[in-house]
């Protein structure tokens, strides 16, 4: 069950909620989440910039003892920032991939349950579901309905189609 978005009395409304503005609905990531994708990339750029500054500072001195502070402050720190930012980028990419894979598995599981319920048979091989209907995107039809045509269809029990919130077809009236 989706929780309603909190409305704060001191926060002004944009006034466009009825026209599709969903800033407070939780569907769109907030500003921090949106810019979090760019933080590791910015860290890598800053790290390479520090390496370049350290290299430039070390190249301007002839004695080795004078070059070491530049190499440590620019080179080592820059290399550390590049390493940790690259690791953060890899972890972030793996988390997004896992989340996308989880969503796909959940959708596959829902579809598998729909197909399994349509194909449930008793021990003697006869179907126990009663009348099967063809499921569309927003309505369900009889298998003989002219709107079904030659499309590949999924048949489910009528009760399940009603439970999913689908409307009966106005043409075939299943």
How would you briefly describe this protein structure?
With 174 residues, the protein is of the alpha+beta class.
Specify Rg, calculated over alpha carbons. 30 Å
Question: Largest sheet at a glance?
Answer: 4 strands, mixed
Low-confidence stretches: 16-22, 122-129
Give a count of the beta strands, DSSP E runs of length 2 or more: 4
Instruction: Give the tally of structural domains.
Output: 2
Beta percentage is 5-15%
Structure description:
The protein has 174 residues and is an alpha+beta fold. The protein folds into 2 domains: 32-116; 132-168, no CATH class. 50% of the residues lie in helices and 7% in strands. It has helices spanning 31-35, 39-59, 64-118, 158-163; strands spanning 132-135, 139-141, 155-157, 167-168. It has a 4-stranded mixed β-sheet. Strand 1 (132-135) and strand 2 (139-141) form a beta hairpin. Helix 2 (39-59) packs antiparallel against helix 3. The radius of gyration is 30 Å and the shape is rod-shaped.
What characteristics describe this protein?
single chain, 174 residues, alpha+beta, 2 domains, four-stranded mixed sheet, 4 strands, 7% strand
Describe the secondary-structure layout.
Blueprint: H1 31-35, H2 39-59, H3 64-118, E1 132-135, E2 139-141, E3 155-157, H4 158-163, E4 167-168
Parallel strand pairs: 2-4
Antiparallel strand pairs: 1-2, 1-3
Helix pairs in contact: 2-3
């Amino acid at each position: 069950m989706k929780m309603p978005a909190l409305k704060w009395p001191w926060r002004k409304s944009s006034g466009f909620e009825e026209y599709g503005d969903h800033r407070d609905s939780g569907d769109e990531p907030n500003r921090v989440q949106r810019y979090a994708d760019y933080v590791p990339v910015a860290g890598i750029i800053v790290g390479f910039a520090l390496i370049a500054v350290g290299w430039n500072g070390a190249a301007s001195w002839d004695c080795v003892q004078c070059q070491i502070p530049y190499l440590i402050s620019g080179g080592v720190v820059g290399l550390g920032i590049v390493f940790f930012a690259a690791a953060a980028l890899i972890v972030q990419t793996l988390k997004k991939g896992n989340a996308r894979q989880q969503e796909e598995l959940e959708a596959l599981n829902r579809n598998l349950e729909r197909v399994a319920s349509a194909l449930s048979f008793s021990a003697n091989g006869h179907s126990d579901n009663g009348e099967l209907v063809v499921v569309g995107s927003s309505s369900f039809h009889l298998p003989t309905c002219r709107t079904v045509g030659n499309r590949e269809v999924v048949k489910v029990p009528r009760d399940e189609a009603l439970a999913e919130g689908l409307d009966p077809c106005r043409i075939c009236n299943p």
